[in-house]
């Protein structure tokens, strides 16, 4: 069995980003979460014209958005991490509908520029990477990019306070002779900060073949904190937001 450990800060310094979890991402993405987030997009974004998807990763939900766009719709997929962007572009290159529809931008969320008003901004599994002072910039930038009535969509964050999260195994998928899962746990690492340790495991039958661990320092963003920050950015709660989803829309002019 092979065992390796890498810290996200070290990988970021080397420009490697999600070098550890990138190869496992699609294999261990929880199916229930995938279905729940896709359903939220169907309820909130169907028929949208122009969408910015920030941090699309490998494109799991970019495909869903392609199915939901209105006529002549566009998607701006903003993915700064090279290993994720490689998987994203590979996925999109095999989808004919993406050719004239999806533009992939390599900048990060605070640097990327979109030159047309947006009907929706989607931010799944990414806001925990932004400290409070950067979130203020993030909200104002993308709230300002929305058309009046446009919607910003993300999931509620876990945990809601800087507390330890006990170890839990998240089952993954099988590919050929191997099956995959991830052992996830977190510990408090400071005020409003937790350190997630994610161990990605490869099995053959009951034999553990490989495990690789990545650690991520993540900022805790409670629903209350999020509400205060988004309200200050000129957004209001969307009345159709499903449970567990944070959906906020730009206030329409009176």
TrEMBL record:
One of its GO terms (molecular function) is methyltransferase activity. Transmembrane segments: none annotated. Pfam families: Methyltransf_25. Residues 51-150 form the Methyltransferase domain. It comes from the Bacteria. This is Methyltransferase domain-containing protein. The lineage of its organism: Bacteria, Bacillati, Actinomycetota, Actinomycetes, Kitasatosporales.
